[in-house]
Amino acid sequence: MASFTINGEQVDVDANPDTPLLWVVREHLKLTGTKFGCGVGQCGACTVHVDGNATFACLMPVSAVEGRDVTTIEGLSGTGDHPLQQAWVAEEVPQCGYCQSGQIMRAAELLATNARPSREEIVAHMSTNICRCGTYSRIIRAIERAAQEA
Using one digit for the tens of pLDDT, what is the confidence trace for 16-70? Predict the structure, then answer.
């Protein structure tokens, strides 16, 4: 049994301690905004926050989040009005949309630690997340917009 907080709610999950957090989030807790991309920490589609730090949920066993605070895309804003979510819409970032929850969660970590990042800082921070559709310029513009409007 793993006990942790997810999106502000305390949960107890009956899962093998080695089960990746990604599968606990998606299959046990039915929070499907976090996506499976590669399963080896190379794409970033599964990015969630653990104690405020962007983390690849596919690589983290559920036992590692015992007593910790996890935030998924669903917990970023209950109403979808987080500045990043609004900027994503305004900049028309998504094409297929598959990677976008991971992109937004990575960007949220950046803005939480650096409210006014430079373009170079954005590019460096976001380099861990892949977008198969290649919307990188829109992602950068959305992060810049969110930083200006926050």
Answer: 999 999 999 999 999 999 999 999 999 999 999 999 999 999 999 999 999 999 9
Tokens at 29, concatenated: 């807790």
- What CA–CA distance (Å, rounded) separates 29 from 100? 20
pTM exceeding 0.90 = yes
Question: Is the Cβ–Cβ distance between 110 and 53 less than 8 Å?
Answer: no
* In contact, 66 and 18? CB cutoff 8 Å: no
Q: Where are the alpha helices (DSSP H) in the chain?
A: 21-23, 73-76, 83-90, 100-113, 119-126, 136-149
In a 13 Å sphere around the CA of 31, the CA atoms on its Cβ side amount to 24
